[in-house]
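Re: the multi-chain job from yesterday

Posting the exact lines I submitted so nobody has to dig through the queue logs.
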Amino acid sequence: MNAANLSLQLLTGLQIGAIYVMIALGLTLIFGTLGVANFAHGALFMIGAYLGYVVAEATNHWVAFIAVPPAVFLVGIVIERTLVRFFYNRPASDQILVTFGLALVLQELMRWIFGGTNLPYGTPPWATVPVDIGIGYYPPWRLVIVGVTAAAVLGLFLLLRYTRFGLVVRAGMRDPEMLGFLGIDVPKRFTLVFGLGALFAGIAGVIGGPITGVTPDIGMAVLVPSFLVVVIGGMGSLAGAVISGLILGEAVSLSVLIYPPSTQIIVYLIAAVVLLWRPRGLLGVKGVME
Amino acid sequence: MTSNKSRFPKPLSRRAVVRATALAGTAFGACLAAGRGPLGFVRDAWAEKAYPALGNYPIKGSTVKFGFTVPLTGAYTDEGNDEIKAYKLAVKHINEGGGILSTLKPLNLKGQGILGKKVDFVSGDNQTKPDAARENARRMIERDGIIMYSGCSSSAVAVALQYLAQEKGVIYMVGLSHSNDTTGKDRRRYGFREFFDAYMSGVALGPILAKEYGKDRRAFHLTADYTWGHTQYQSMKDATEKQGWKTVKNIMTPLGTKDFSQYLTAVLNSDADVVVLNHYGADMVNSLTQAVRFGMRDKQVNGKHMQIVVPLYSRLMAKGAGAKNIEGILGTVNWNEKLTDAGSKIFVKAFQDVYKEPPSQAAQTAYLQTILYANAVERAGTFYPPEVIKALEGFEYEGFGPGKSTYRASDHQVFKDIYVVRGKAPSKMANQFDLLEIVEQIPRKEVEYDSKLLGGDLGPYIPNKT
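And the result, structure tokens for all chains:
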């Protein structure tokens, strides 16, 4: 084991963590603002991957990359307007049941349309040949994932920090009631936030789909680790989601070096330890989910 | 106070006698109209008396039901879809004739059902999970009254279903299952497997790998973490080490893994110059595609060109992974749609006529297993499971695939020639299904082994009620 080997494994961890971060960001954004644990978030990722596949097959990857996230944004808006908004004042168990049910409906809908077969969502031709990055050869598409995630995280940070919309969202995460008293159209902001979360899932679907191919169950496969990321990071904390996503990605990758069978339990182990040590998660805020 | 009236039978009135005679006459007439004399009843009654009730035997009515439990969700979905197509075709051929009924020898089937009964079937999704499969098959046995069931794709499912078969006294014709355990340590009297196993793959592939890639190789294994993966890893390790290869490391990966990057990075970080992917179905499609993208086909290690090996191959996976990714990669198959024997040709044509694409090896074994069961019943002259089992044990047949095949009595494993194949270059493909080329036909005697080698005990003909 030399430095180059270790950095290669670290890079793989970064790239695994990047997908976790992309999905967890939307999840925690929706949870932090709307108070809804959106179990249909994995399904939005899956829809992003299917749309990406269809569009990329019909045109090319660039079109898919530009067109699909806004499309998933719209799907998110529709879901919020027609279903989720009726559950804001219902108990958390109702919210979980309805979003989980929605996830199953969307998953079976895709199976109905496309079948259960793995659709070969390929990478663009330029991304099929590994590139030399100094520490070894690496698949370019996985580097794209890291880059896109970094850009998305930065974009979200700028949006929330420097725009009026961001100010309102941040205020909403603290105290939605007061926001309403101040004369802000809260339901409209909620819809946009849900759409924004869906947009992130859509981006994750477009960049994650070519790695694994597209099947109806990829949504459920990412849902569990992403929820762990949110819980470990602290429910509703965006910075927490980024940090814990990267920690889990690295943990999954590095545990292979130390003891491969532990790869499967390492995320749960970390979750248990973190929650024992900090019951609200790494950057959890008091009052959320309490 | 009880009435005395009921104690005394009514004297037979003239009217009652007339009515009874008329009824008997109608019944007799109905029997004649149905084409069977009342003697038919007597014969059936005698047949059922000869064997006690067991599992879902005896069968009531004029149809007999099969159960097909295949993965329609999970990592082996493609294989499951193809199996179910084949089962439907097999049932059609049993009922109406056609298909390999014209080539299989010895044959007792006449293409008019089995023992005068038409075959019907129920099917279900086993989700590639042993517990779901068990539940699925149990429901078919208890609710639908099936006399035989078949299907799987995952050996973990096959093993679970075999134990259920033994418990329930219902014969299980294993579908696609490649673990040594299926007819090894977990062999069951009520389970039968036509598909080859990991041991045979290893023995067949070992020498060819050494010939193609040299004897001084260092192999890194990635292995699906369940019975099949475990036995295939062991068999491949033994077979390649016998040729002088070294095994650098093995990592078990859970069935249904989507992203293999952390494992593949570990391969890159080792000094291995061969990576053996003990994966199947969607797992293999993902691990192989990702391995190729990690540059494992173009890498130079220890001054050698790095190689990927996929010990158990299938055309469906080759299609999923894409022709470019599988070009030149070696593996083994049980059967291939390009075989030129009469049975294979007829089967391929029948399948293609209905489904517009050639059958996979999963379809082939599913189809053949159903026909073999039906034929064994016809041979035994009864559906009584122990007699059917005896008709299958040691059964030697030909007319579908290469040469003579035998269902070995001691472990219920079929022995016949198998094939080493290689992914075809995209430029040489005749059509989109033409993905594999046969490198060598490995004669049966080379892959045959002592049934004691893998251990296991079949258990009794009459299931113990506990």
